[in-house]
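Progress against Task 2.4 (sequence-to-structure conversion) is shown through the following example record, which the project officer requested during the mid-term review.
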Amino acid sequence: MVELEGKKMSDTLGATSPPGVAEVGRLLKRNYLLLIQGVVLRLVVFGALCAAPVVLSKTGTWDSPVLSVLSVAGVMGFVLMTYRFPFALLSLGRCRRVLREYPLEFRSGMSKKSESRTKYGTVFTVRVKAEERGRSPLLRAADALERHRWPKGAEDGVWFAGDLPFGGVVVVPGSGTLLVVRPEDWDKFAAEREQAGPDRIERARRTRLAKRVR
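Structure tokens generated for the chain above:
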């Protein structure tokens, strides 16, 4: 279980008790810290891959063509990190705006229908349960931290913040995972977005949900 400032994530973001502003703030802080920790770890690993061939060849410890492969792996790792890191920052920024603008609503579960690899990471096709009939459209969901794994506990209940025709953010209580979601068939909800009241449209613009991404 993930620890957060002396508390378990499942305690601060319980399945049925609405999380307060403080809990949401800690959740966002934790995800930013995880992003930074991930970047630092990658810098160390990729830096070591780049430096190892130089050090080993100069000391004569190991002289092999394999060393060039390590250098290439390190450089490619740096390139991939610099490409994806900005998208993770943008995703977390969107989560922060959505969570501050929209209330969190509890949904009894989220199921995964499929998944695919894209240049942004793994994108899941999901269905978030809703009490109203016809209000559970297929959604595209991507981990805000660009991780590939499916969040544990999503099937048992999640929190949703947003406006379905525009998208939103899903919070998985057990792990504190943030998923950016939008309708799988974006064009299907075009008429509903256009007919939304000015307040809803302005709200979606402020949080950038009105902009199609991923």
